[in-house]
User: Fold this.
Amino acid sequence: MLARTAENLFWLARYMERADYLARLLQVAGHMNSVRVDSDRNSEWESAIVASGCRVGYFASHAEAAESQVIQYLAFDRDNPSSIANCIEISRRNARAVRTALTSDMWEAVNGTWQEFAGFQDASGDPDRLAAFLDWLKARVRLFHGVSTNDMLRRDEYCFVRIGQFLERADNTARLLDVKYHVRLPQATDVGGVVDYYQWLAILRVVGARRAYRVLFKGQVESVHVAELLISRTEFPRSLVFCYRQLTQHLDAIQDQSPQLTAEAKRQAHSLYAQLRFARIDHIISGGLHEYLTSIVQQTDELGSQIARGHLFQS
Amino acid sequence: MESDRPVFDEMGWPQEVRPPYALVDAWLKSLPRDQLDLKRREAEVLFRRIGITFAVYSQGGDPERLIPFDLIPRVLAQAEWQRLRAGLEQRTRALNAFIHDVYHDREIVRAGLVPERLVLHNAQFRPEMAGLDLPGGIYSHIAGIDMVRTGPDEYFVLEDNCRTPSGVSYMMENREVMLRLFPDLFRQNQVAPIAHYPDELLATLRSVAPPNCQGEPHIVLLTPGIYNSAYYEHAFLADEMGIDLVEGADLLVRNDICYMRTTSGLQRVDVIYRRIDDDYLDPLVFRADSTLGVPGLHFANRAGNVTLTNAVGAGIADDKAVYIHVPEMVRFYLGEEPLLRNVPTHDCSDPQQLRYVLEHLHELVVKAVHGSGGYGMLVGPHASRSELEAFRTLLKARPHEYIAQPTLALSTVPTFVEAGIAPRHVDLRPFVLSGADRVRVVPGGLTRVALKEGSLVVNSSQGGGTKDTWVLED
Assistant:
């Protein structure tokens, strides 16, 4: 398989996954904002910026995290390289470059998204249109993952799609959980208070885990359980351990005739997987959740570069 | 031949309907107008969704435009097609023999039939190819021969495209869309299938494996990338043939052997169907600033380790001044009488002919010898006074760069336009595949239609559209 094809498939899946995550962030930020009990209207929007990994870029050009500006920036701003608009654009560019590696339904899922997106450009100022847009986008990404699951031959091409998807998801989950570190509570004494509670709930909602939490932990939302769910519960498909299990499996499945080149990527993925698999959540929290998650984001980034080197995307 | 003669309508309008069109005529009469409108919109959605677009440079707006597709098919009877096909095969055999000769002993020049200047001073002449023997002696493996028609039995070759002719994906997708929209129509008419074109192309590419290839040749399609106007076609053909679509950066040459970079290391490549122009193919030999090509590819080619289709230097045969001599090539190389006619062409480099051209400019079509795509062209009868003057100056300054032809009364086919159904001028580009084993042609080709009333320019870059082309089985 052509190395460039692997690269394009990898980025195609990464950007589709990122677009979905951004849509979820915006949905939940809007929802949480409307049930807020104090007057700090910008807090949720700031969280969304932090959780998207766009903080530096955003505050370079904006003074405050006002609702309309954040929505515009994360969803439609062409100057933000990670906006939904650019995710769709880049996904489609990658898909176009590897049309021969895609099934026609996969291509139509990506191309149709790109075409229909033009009709939502004006949605940022209109709450109803925005809601419709975010729902539409999530459905389009589900369609993409659905057709790739059902249509693709189980060969290396498929593995690279999945690696892109789960590498991005691991990054997103780590950033999302870390958002609590950056978000201000009205007062320090509010830890464990109402606002704190709603913020943990919001995190669960972004990854669609409200119900999963109830099933696994019963009872009230507690930070330690949320962290456990998102870090080390193998049953939950957005947890870090789940993502890394997928990454190890797909990396192992790729047929490499150059074991010395790909060894390092595999070693890193398996090593992190083992750490996550046997992680103790009380140790993580006592050692500093923020430091732990920062390290995961860095290692995930490093793994991405290593995969690129190991499979000759870069030469 | 002259433009005031009544135009030949292939369906027979406004007189009696010609037999090949009987069922199409009945179909049109039975179809309510709004139905056709609806189907046209459906077709457009299909084309957009599949992503069959065509990039037009230097224009604002939608960077990925659709080529307008007309729903009314263009029909050829089996006997009409057989005559054409025999002529096309003959012509491409002669063209390939000519290119081979140009890069070997140049016997046709020595025989005094083609002026030496036309070969050696031609921008498309590649001295780097001299003396190299290619598999089967084939240079133009995929040729697009543009044909026009002026009467029931009058066909002319307008130009030969021997380099990297495009359009075959439209030929195939047009049929695909018609089959989806009007399945009944195909049940009533016996239309020769064309879906096997990619198989024929692959067989052709296989047949020209390089001398040093052992076993099954590994074939790839080399594209300039997604920003190329014909990118869709490159992806389409690679997909249909099940071969890799590669860019220059995916290939490399070591010790005169060409490889592609794969996730499992380097893999040897034997045949490259390249859709990159000669100039950009190898920065070590041709344009040094090319980032699209592969350094050393030409040497791999010369070493017999890789075959390039079409071969470097094949463009020598599709120059419009060389065109004048193609009928002579058929006689010289094949010892046969040409089955296809050329449009009578004035060579402006000849002072006597130039004088005639300047005197009759308002009734002639003037073309730049190296131009393509309908650019750098003057259609005398439709030109303004200032356009005529501009060309007069050009012709006097650089007569070698132009040829002139009478304006032909191109045949028309009924076409769906704003005002209803009306005749519009068409041409035909059949695709001729030449392998080391034999010549292959799928029935029909790409019909291009000038959508503007009275217009003779069918190029998609200038507002032309396309039609499905039917060859009826007997």
